[in-house]
Request: fold
Amino acid sequence: MLTFVISRLLRAGLTILFVMTFAFIVLRLSGDPALLIMSVDAPPEAVAAFREAWGLNRPIWEQYFSYIGHAFTGDFGKSMRDGRPAIDLVMERVPATLAITMPALALKIGLGIPAGIYAALHRNSMADRLTMAASVAGFTMPSFVLALLLVLVFAVQLGWLPASGSGSLDHAILPIITLGTGGAAIMARFTRSAMLEVLGQPYIRAASAKGVNWHRVVSRHALPNAAIPTVTIVGFMVGSLVAGAVVVESVFAWPGIGRLLVSAVANRDLAVVQAILMVIATWMVAANFTVDLAYGWLDPRVRNATAH
Amino acid sequence: MSAPLVALRGLTVDFENGGRMSRAVDGVDLEIAPGEALGIVGESGSGKSVTWLAALGLLPAKARVAGSVRLEKQELIGVPARVLEDVRGKRIAMIFQDPSSCLNPVHRIGWQLVEALRLHRGLHGKAAEAEALRLLDQVGIADARRRLQDYPHLLSGGLNQRVMIAMALAGQPDLLVADEPTTALDATIQAQILALLGSTRRDTGMALILISHDLGVVAENVDRVAVMYAGRLVEEAPGTDLFGAARHPYTQGLLAALPSLIGPRRRLAAIPGTVPDPWNVPAGCRFAPRCPVAEMRCTNVPPPARSVGFRHVATCHRQVEAGYSVWSLPQALPQAAE
Reply:
């Protein structure tokens, strides 16, 4: 178990390092921040001074090693816009993003999993077909379309909720519903197929043959098995808690990480973009790690495989 | 003969498959006495497993079951699920072909055994654990205490089948239905499991139904054999009579296909043709298209069940004499050579 955890942690560190390297290289290749920030008709001396100040005139490998070296001490550089530490800018946006993505995750799980279980238990019934039709509609609709539709109905037509911005609980409702709908649809489909797969297994019939009543067959024999593949999808969703709201935050002008990313990319604020990507990657890796641990906890076959 | 423990009357099972109905079991009449060992033999698709799954209400919802199954005085067809739940495991237990996939992979062996003990005997805690240990011991599992903590994937197929038998015994059933219990196991393990089933039956006095496609498996382990073909019972007789004096051409064909350990070496005879599809069965005898002695009426009129000896019933128009195999007739040969 310990070797499993250590090897996973090492791999996680490598993944994050890879993401940081990739982000560093791509951002350097895709345009000169000095020209963008200083504007093209700035005097050449000013541009040169800017490059000097931010170290952009040094060889790229030197910049890279200096960046990685500082990153190990927790220094991810400063924003070229306002000179504050990039990581602070990013971290102060995290709570706003989580404020809409966490309730959305609860909605995905709370709506999607029960709907999927119900549909599987009543396979081919009217309820099953309706649930699955709703789920197709839910995950095929792009989030910006759904967002605009919700705004049109609840903000413009009915006037119940604000169309965009932040500051009150009401502002969060439409972003949460937009984020939650597609995820709930995916969750429902996935749970349904996981459940159907399990219900077709011989041990389900054997449990019935043993005299276990159907309610208990479902809750104690089928659900724990169906939970194993379902955890994968939940893991993906947890992984996207930080980065999954870029579009929705932009549509609703929600001051989270997504909007910071969009503006930092547009402004070529290198340190901020890099810090955001690093935070997202770290979160993703942590979520995957948790899923792996959850697998071991849920599935004794995995537990034994990793113990040796 | 005492009153039957279980009696099937006109049991019929239809499956709805893509809009068309296909009949998997067609009017089976069968009885089993308390403590009796009955073998049910037939090819895959003959309806031998479906018959007993239907009797216990274990078929999927798309199956339509008609007829009657009585456990002593209790009717089992068309009754509420609650009634069946009380019968399953407690009066009639069932074990299946692939033991390793019949045990729940996420629960320990002990958990699964204790669940059965709590359900049928109301045992909890230490008492349930002690009884679980005793049961594992009874089915010949060494190191039972450790096995209780194991998950099914850590055990071999043979051990898992022993666990399944222990779990079936947990409810002290009157009848154990063993559906191809050794098909997924090695030959040596197979013999051990069959011996275990036999000794358990003698010790507990429960009745046993041994379902198999293998005449050899059935021959040594039962008192009486019923042969099924394409959803119908074709012959039923005490074991010795069936193997010595089979009267139905299909049974004779099965016997002719067995290698003999004594006497000169001979070619094994195969029955030509294949089992009819369940949605396209012949109007008369279902075996008629493959039968070497079929006549006009065999094709058109379903044969009646006819008593041909002491507790020996054959469902055949042609009253083939005992000790005389239709597969040794000259007219059987050209067909068999096809």
About this structure: Chain A is about 80% helix and 0% strand.
